[in-house]
Description:
Number of helices: 10
Low-confidence stretches: none
Mean pLDDT: 95
Shape: globular
Strand order of the largest sheet: 1-2-3-4
Amino acid sequence: MDSLSQAALGAAIGVAVMGRRTKIWKAALIGAVAGTLPDLDAFYDHGDPISNMVFHRAKSHAPFWQTLASVPIAALTAWALRERQHFIAWWWTIWLALVTHALLDWTTVYGTQLGLPFTDTPFGLGSMFIIDPLYTVPLLIGVIVALSLRNVRGLRWNMAGLILSTAYLGWSALAQYHVTNVATENLRAQGHQVEKLMVTPAPLNTILWRIVAITPQGYLDGYYSVLDRDRSITFHQFPRGEELYAQLRDNVFVDRIARFSGGFFRMSERNGRAVISDLRMGMEPNYTFNFEVAQRQGAGLVPLSPPERYSMRPDMANGLPWLWRRALGEKLPPPR
């Protein structure tokens, strides 16, 4: 999730655990800082844009390493604040802020390596978009009221924010399950042979969902809103660039994206360069993560080392109006 959501969650946890033991502003501040610590890995340069993507949400997001790190962080916090008598409570605060950060990231589709050091498999439920105001706002309101009132009533507001935001996560998982069933029914009825299926929310909401299905012919892209009046879904088919992939599948960078995306990727050629795109994040035809991995030379392809990030700008002017109208159940074709 975005940094604001993570800071708000950490602050709410800090207030919930430490609100009766220390000043509320201290609890909120330390919780917010701890809640954003795992994302500091984004500032570490692994040498190329694909490695930076794949190794984000890795060790710093693994509960095993977070548990080990929480002890010295809590000790330093208790010592700096001269509250050594509350070391256990500060440790509980830090640990919860770190681990819930990782679990919240797990609800998105990006991929969080929760199992390190035992497995580097990226896990992603995909029930939440990376930014969702309906998750973040209750947390912010609860923390702000707690900071303003500085009494038991404020602590109750903070707890209410935590409960509402957690309930929203539960709603997103239920909505995803429902849309997955609807999508499966449609794909089966339309005679598609599906190898992999992904259902994840469109930007900023959990009402409109994007469906991507990998098939032997390429991939299908469709949308379904929980407010649609019927259960029909229109899918559009696109090529995955299998010929390009066959030529470059042994390339270490191509393999990293193929594995990290769980097979939800495509390859294309632009201006004489082979580009690999992660299909999980973005809207057709513009995706968030695109990398130029090889240069065309004659009939062959020469790998680029390191690969280069390829920018695609989303059509916000047409995309946002379509997003809200489609979420409300108006079956409009997506902007291309």
